Amino acid sequence: MADGKGMEKVDMSKEFSKLSEADKYFVRKLEQMNRDRAKDMKTLRRKNWMTALAIGTGVASIYFYSMYAVRQERFLADFDTVPEKK
């Protein structure tokens, strides 16, 4: 692969024809299981992205609301004035 060509393509039809019927059945069953697994992983990946987006949006919302709320507070301005003594 150092020459940049990649791997050679293998013709599995010749090899597949040499297998017994039981082996062919198990090969097909394994291929179907892999397709199902890939489909499940794709669905799971999509759900994970949606969850991450929802959590990220929640965190960003809380952060920006906190910054907005702190900016609105004026309780520290009261410490600048000296209280009157009675």
Automatic annotation (TrEMBL):
InterPro entries: Coa3, Coa3_CC
One cellular component (GO) term of this entry: mitochondrial inner membrane
Membrane topology: Single-pass membrane protein
Cytochrome c oxidase assembly factor 3 mitochondrial coiled-coil domain: residues covered: 35-80
Main location per the UniProt record: mitochondrion
Domain of life: Eukaryota
Location in the cell: Mitochondrion membrane
Transmembrane segments: 49-68
UniProt function note: Required for assembly of cytochrome c oxidase (complex IV).
Quaternary data: Component of 250-400 kDa complexes called cytochrome oxidase assembly intermediates or COA complexes.
Protein known as: Cytochrome c oxidase assembly factor 3
Source organism of the structure: Littorina saxatilis
